[in-house]
Write a structure and sequence with these properties.
Helices cover 22% and strands 33% of the residues. It contains two helices and four strands; from the N terminus they run βαββαβ. A four-stranded antiparallel β-sheet has the order 2-3-1-4, covered by helices on one side.
């Protein structure tokens, strides 16, 4: 009998997109926090339940026509500067 793999815990991710998105896009991206960086990029950051949700977020970036610059797994509570 094949056993199903144990569910993975929620991960936290940071997606960096070229250009500044308006704040209202945060809701469309599942409530991820949206930050405008000084280098002209937008950083979406927050918890992602599983790989299916992560791929859904990547599809939304594609559907928006935005340029995805990076995707990184991050600690849940990044150190404050």
């Amino acid at each position: 009998m094949n056993a199903r793999p144990a569910p993975q815990p929620t991960g936290h991710y940071e997606l960096r997109i070229d250009g500044h998105l308006d704040e209202h896009w945060s809701t469309w991206f599942g409530g991820l926090s949206l930050t405008h960086a000084d280098d002209g990029t937008t950083i979406l950051r927050g918890p992602v339940t599983d790989q299916a949700e992560l791929h859904g977020l990547l599809a939304k970036v594609r559907d928006l026509g935005a340029t995805l610059l990076s995707v990184n797994a991050i600690d849940a509570d990044p150190p404050r500067c």
